Amino acid sequence: MKAGNLDVDIREMVIDDLPLVFHLGEKLFTPEEFSNLYRTWDEYEVTYLFQTEPEFCLVATIDDKLAGFALGYTVEKPRTAWDYGHLVWLGVDEPYQRHGLATKLFEEFMEIMQTKGVRIMVVDTQANNKGAIHFFKKHGFDNPIKHVYMSLNLDEVSREKGR
User: Fold this and answer.
1) Alpha carbon distance 5, 27 (integer Å)
2) What is the full DSSP assignment across 66-118?
3) Rounded to an integer, what is the distance from CA 49 to the centroid of its chain?
4) How many CB atoms lie within 10 A of CB 79?
5) pLDDT at 148 exceeding the cut of 90
6) Can you give the residue ranges of every domain in the chain?
7) How far is the C-alpha of 111 from the C-alpha of 148, rounded, in Å?
8) What is the pTM for the complete model shown?
9) Domain 2-160 has CATH 3.90.1260.10
10) pLDDT tens for residues 16-58?
11) What confidence tier does 159 reach under pLDDT thresholds 50, 70, 90?
12) How close are the terminal C-alpha atoms of the chain, in Å?
């Protein structure tokens, strides 16, 4: 499969990919840049997704080197005919960005979702992540819904109460 002028292999993630995916995600999803995501990038997030629904964990390699990944899961709605897919993380290493690799990963992810009977796919991102919003709109996502996330620093509450 070609992404731009790169020869890309997209495949299901295997256990040996876990540390590589984790470290690439650490590089891409920093707390400084993505401070208010309700999901956090950590080793538990990666291993949980891999353990629960590995068919929705994809990696893209170029010359056997990790270049990107897509991680997600499904939600079955038993009372409806609608199963949902959630693309939780989509990341491409900086040297491979702007070559169509994210699009290839997304298209492969979407195809797997469709073969599993998913009828609606959702994504989320921070409201100020203009690149991600543009990418997902370009790929057919619409109807953005704004959420409000609030936080409470329990250390401060404890100090105020003298604990």
Assistant:
1) 24
2) EEEEEEEEEEE-TTSS-EEEEEEEEEE-GGGTTTTHHHHHHHHHHHHHHHTT-
3) 10
4) 5
5) no
6) 2-160
7) 31
8) 0.82
9) no
10) 999 999 999 999 987 666 655 556 778 888 999 999 999 999 9
11) confident
12) 59
